[in-house]
Amino acid sequence: MPESSQPGSPKPESPNEVVDRWLAGLDAALQARDIHAALALFEEDSYWRDFVAFTWNLKTLEGKDDIRRMLDAQLEHVQPAGWVRAEDATGDAAAAEAWVNFETGQARGYAHLRLRNGRCWTLLTTMQELKGFEEKKGANREQGVAHKIEKGRLSWLEKKIAREDSLGYDEQPYCVIVGGGQGGIGLAARMRRLGVPTIVIEKNARPGDSWRNRYKSLHLHDPVWYDHLPYLKFPEDWPVFASKDKIGDWLEHYTRIMELNYWSSTECTKAAFDEAAQEWVVEVVREGRKVTLRPKQLVFALGVSGYPNTPVFEGAETFAGQQHHSSKHEGGGDWTGKKAVVIGSNNSAHDICADLWETGAEVTMVQRSSTHIARSSALMDLALGDLYSERALANGVTTEKADLLFASLPYRILPAAQIPVYEEMARRDADFYAKLTDVGFDLDFGTDGSGLFLKYLRRGSGYYIDVGASQLLIDGRVKVKSGQIDRIESDGVVLADGTALAADLIVYATGYGSMNGWLADLVSPEVADQVGRCWGYGSDTPKDPGPWEGELRNMWKPTNVERLWIHGGNLHQSRHYSNYLALQIKARMEGLDTPVFELQESHFTH
Question: Domains, the chain, ranges and CATH?
Fold first, then answer.
């Protein structure tokens, strides 16, 4: 008879009991400022990832020495307490997981905990709201109207217009966000909910134009559950993959619904920090009129990357046809009987090849380096299904929980979690991948086999989510040539092996430079160098050089230039991380003490 079933044998502990005992031990140790006792609750190879709550930073602590150093520096300031389960734990006594509520002296937090044999393997702590500066929502929402009849009362619309007319002229914003795409819009919504006077600067004429202005066939490659904006989710009948114009319209309506101070047709021409006044001087041109803004905080929200990267090939100036970067490709038209060469082999290259083939062109893709391809259906099932899908929602995994679950795996151990996903993808779609290699397409699954998400985090490029264009390559309807470009001639492209590709159109689907380049032009090269590299986390893989950082460089957290912030990423990242950035800025506006633990070093110039 098994030991657990013998009379008088102790009943196995439930995961709730294991988690509760651990939380009680941590709570007691931290309140007693007994760092030694706190460390005893962690495995030797443990990870504590903190979003603002303890470090006023986005920081991953790896192992007990890192955790000790952080607690030595921060514990007295943070004053954590009240660690309790938010709901029932899952797993078993040997491997339990739990959602946790806790508080600090200044904030309320939410955490995710993984225990192995009663000790912590991973801990994610996040700041969720500042005490005394909560969003006015739910039971705390504003009344909206004074139930008192007086002459001269202003309507809601009149008050709104008056605020908009004043901010930036009679009254200075506390924060200016340069960039009014999805990132700037979502962040501004959070700022407004926190009562931070903010202006968004956008050069396009309408919110959403950064999507509308792309090639007409563009759709989101990520599914709807992954792409919600803060506070306002897409309707339940929203398509899984929305078109770029539909997203553009949603962003425009969202901007109005959230009552954002959104300055469209406005270009930021220069920004400089006024040391004496401790504020930024931001020069903009709004509908042809020069305006000077003086915010205390400046956020650059200009996407995942910087300027279009258009390589300079010998002879390009002699080309007799049309040539442009993928960012300028409008799509559509009639290319019947014309020859097109698309240089590049990632998402935009595939989409543009498909667009050109649909409009009658004879298309050749030039692949200069290997590319990871994940079929959309496989990606949704294997990589996203447990977090972002109807299946996930049915299992109680909300968008907010999904964001935190994904964040709960530090980047050091994320590859080990992702590799089996892409091994199964390679097995499941083996025939598909074999057909691609048979036509000369150079495939990879990342340098360590960890696939798409790690490539995105490390370099922001190098992959295609297949929504149909791969079949064009397999069928030979779009030709693929591998190799480097030797030169461009008046009538086409010549590869390094001497292959000549006739062309009436050349599209450079060659990606973008670092977002750091915006800082060099809009502020100064010196400030860009002081901030250092943006994106990547030091994995020492192609296009993500070391040293190891463990978090995306300079994203959503304090940089080495005081009062200057970088916000960006895909829709998922813009939604999730905007919360932490908004809280950091709100705390500074209210004069709270915000001791930042270990700013990252500036290892790379612009």
Answer: 15-130 (3.10.450.50), 158-306+513-590 (3.50.50.60), 316-508 (3.50.50.60)
Per residue in 478-516, pLDDT tens? 999 999 999 999 999 999 999 999 999 999 999 888 778
Residue 44 burial (CB count, 10 A): 9
- DSSP codes joined into one string, 449-486: S--HHHHHHHHS-SEEEESSHHHHHHHTSEEEEES-EE
Return the beta strands (E) in 104-210 as ranges.
107-116, 119-130, 175-178, 198-201
Calculate the alpha carbon distances from 129 to 88, 233, 587 in Å: 23, 20, 10
Nearest Cα to 554, choosing from 531, 577, 571?
531
Q: How far is CA 83 from the centre of its chain?
A: 29
Convert the pLDDT of each residue in 268-278 to its tens digit: 999 999 999 99
Q: Compute the distance between CA of residue 26 and CA of residue 290 in angstroms, rounded to an integer.
A: 56
- Neighbour tally for 243: CB within 10 Å: 15
Instruction: Report CA Rg, the chain.
Output: 26
Signed CA dihedral, 514, 517, 518, 523: sign only: positive
Its pTM stands at 0.94
Q: How far apart are CA 227 and CA 222, in angstroms?
A: 7
3-state secondary structure of 391: helix
Would you give the distance in Å from CA 270 to the centre of its chain? 26
